[in-house]
C-alpha cells in the first residue's frame, strides 16, 4: 500500500485529494497545524465521510524539524504540498506570514524531502495568480509570470524552488499551475462560495443584499474534484514536470452572480452591490488557461461544467441554511 502525505489536508483540495487517494488504496497521512479552534478543523473531511480514514499528524510547514520527523516516521511515497495562507485579499494584511507559510514553507518541505526521503515524489500547488497582470491572452506553461499580490509572489518563490530542486537534485518534483477551482467545500471568503451562500440566504429570507467588490474580474473556474485528479496524475508520470490545469473558459464575477441567482429564480441586480472597500489594492483582471499539455500528456480534462458546479454549490448552501433554520 503506497503512503502519501498531504499538507493542507483540512482545506478544500486536501479533502478531495484524500478522498481520491483513499479510493486508490493509499494510506493517507495529513499534516495538521495545531490551533485553538481545532474543533472545526476536520469539517471538510467529515463532510466527505473520510475523517476516520485519514491519519492526522501534528506538524507545521514553518517548522523544518517537524517535517523531518513526519517524513522519518511515515516514509511517504508521494507528498502533496497544498498547505498555504491561500486567500489573496488577506495576503496584503499579512504579507510576511504569507511569505513564510506559502513560500518558505514549500522550501522547508522540499529540503526535508531532500534530507530524509529524496526518492519520494513531490507535488507543489502552484497558482494561476502567478500570471497576475497577464502577458498573453491565454496562459500556458511558457507564459511569463507577473504576480500582483504578496500571495502570488510567495507562490512564485515556491514554484521556482520546486523547479530548482528538480533540476539541481533530480528530485521527482512537479508543479501544478492550477486555475481557480471551487466546490461546496470552498472557503466562504472566496467569491464563488460567498455568492452561492448569499444566494441561499437571500432565497430563504435570511438576507436581502450581497456586498461584493469588483464584478468585472474574470476567472477560469473549474471544479476541485476534477483538479485534484490532475495532481495525482502528475505524480504517476515517469518524469516530473509543470502543468497548467484549467477549463479554457473565462467568466466575469457578474456573470457568475447572474447564473447563481437565476438558478433559484432571482435577479442578481436586485441584490448584489459592489462596494469600494471590497476592491483589492492591485487586481488580477482576467485569467484564462490553456491546459493543452495536461490534456495531451496526462490525458486530463475537466468533466464538470461551471453551470453544474454552481447548481451543486447553491443546493448544498440551501440545504445547510434550511437545516440550520429547522434546528
Ligand atoms: P482569487 O482569484 O484566488 O483571488 O479568488 P477569489 O475568489 O478570492 O477572487 C476572485 C475574483 O473575485 C477577484 O478578482 C476578486 O477581486 C473578485 N471579487 C469581487 N468581489 C469579491 C468578494 O467579495 N470576495 C472575494 N474573495 N473576491 C471578490
What brief labels describe this structure?
327 residues; alpha/beta; Rossmann fold; UDP-galactose 4-epimerase, domain 1; 2 domains; seven-stranded parallel beta sheet; two-stranded parallel ribbon; 13 strands; 41% helix; 16% strand; binds guanosine-5'-diphosphate
Explained architecture:
The chain is of the alpha/beta class. It folds into two domains: about 5-180 and about 220-245, NAD(P)-binding Rossmann-like Domain (Rossmann fold, 3-Layer(aba) Sandwich), CATH 3.40.50.720; about 185-220 and about 250-285 and about 305-325, UDP-galactose 4-epimerase, domain 1. The protein has ten helices and 13 strands. It has helices at about 10-25, 45, 65-75, 95-115, 150-170, 190-205, 225-235, 255-265, 290-300, 305-325; strands at about 5, 25-30, 55-60, 80, 120-125, 170-180, 180, 210, 220, 220-225, 240-245, 250, 270-275. A seven-stranded parallel β-sheet has the order 3-2-1-4-5-6-11, with helices on both faces. Strands 7-10 form a two-stranded parallel sheet. The radius of gyration is 19 Å and the shape is globular. Bound molecules: guanosine-5'-diphosphate. The site of guanosine-5'-diphosphate has 18 residues, from helix 6. Guanosine-5'-diphosphate binds next to helix 6.
Amino acid at each position: 500500500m503506497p503512503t502519501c502525505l498531504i499538507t493542507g489536508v483540512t482545506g478544500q483540495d486536501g479533502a478531495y485529494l484524500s478522498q481520491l487517494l483513499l479510493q486508490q488504496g493509499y494510506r493517507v497521512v495529513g499534516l495538521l497545524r495545531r490551533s485553538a479552534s481545532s474543533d472545526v478543523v476536520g469539517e471538510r473531511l467529515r463532510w466527505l465521510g473520510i475523517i476516520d480514514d485519514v491519519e492526522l499528524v501534528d506538524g507545521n510547514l514553518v517548522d523544518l524539524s517537524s517535517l523531518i520527523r513526519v517524513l522519518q516516521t511515515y516514509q511517504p511515497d508521494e507528498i502533496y504540498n497544498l498547505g498555504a495562507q491561500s486567500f489573496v485579499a488577506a495576503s496584503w494584511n499579512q504579507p510576511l506570514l504569507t511569505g513564510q507559510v506559502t513560500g518558505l514553507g514549500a522550501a522547508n518541505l522540499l529540503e526535508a524531502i531532500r534530507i530524509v526521503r529524496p526518492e519520494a515524489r513531490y507535488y507543489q500547488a502552484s497558482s494561476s495568480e502567478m500570471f497576475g497582470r497577464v502577458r498573453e491572452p491565454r496562459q500556458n506553461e511558457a507564459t511569463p509570470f507577473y504576480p500582483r499580490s504578496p500571495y502570488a509572489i510567495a507562490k512564485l518563490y515556491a514554484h521556482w524552488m520546486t523547479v530548482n530542486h528538480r533540476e539541481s537534485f533530480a528530485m521527482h518534483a512537479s508543479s501544478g499551475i492550477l486555475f481557480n477551482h471551487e466546490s461546496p467545500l470552498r472557503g466562504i471568503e472566496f467569491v464563488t462560495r460567498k455568492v452561492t451562500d448569499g444566494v441561499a440566504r437571500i432565497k430563504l429570507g435570511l438576507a436581502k443584499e450581497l456586498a461584493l467588490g469588483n464584478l468585472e474580474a474574470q476567472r477560469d473556474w473549474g471544479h476541485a474534484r476534477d483538479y485534484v485528479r490532475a495532481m495525482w496524475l502528475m505524480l504517476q508520470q515517469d518524469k516530473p514536470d509543470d502543468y497548467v490545469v484549467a477549463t479554457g473558459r473565462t467568466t466575469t464575477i457578474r456573470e457568475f452572480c447572474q447564473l447563481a441567482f437565476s438558478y433559484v429564480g432571482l435577479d442578481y441586480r436586485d441584490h448584489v452591490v459592489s462596494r469600494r472597500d471590497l476592491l483589492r489594492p492591485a487586481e488580477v483582471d482576467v485569467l484564462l488557461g490553456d491546459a493543452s499539455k495536461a490534456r495531451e500528456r496526462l490525458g486530463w480534462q475537466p468533466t464538470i461544467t461551471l453551470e453544474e458546479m454552481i447548481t451543486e454549490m447553491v443546493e448544498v448552501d440551501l440545504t445547510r441554511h434550511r437545516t440550520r433554520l429547522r434546528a
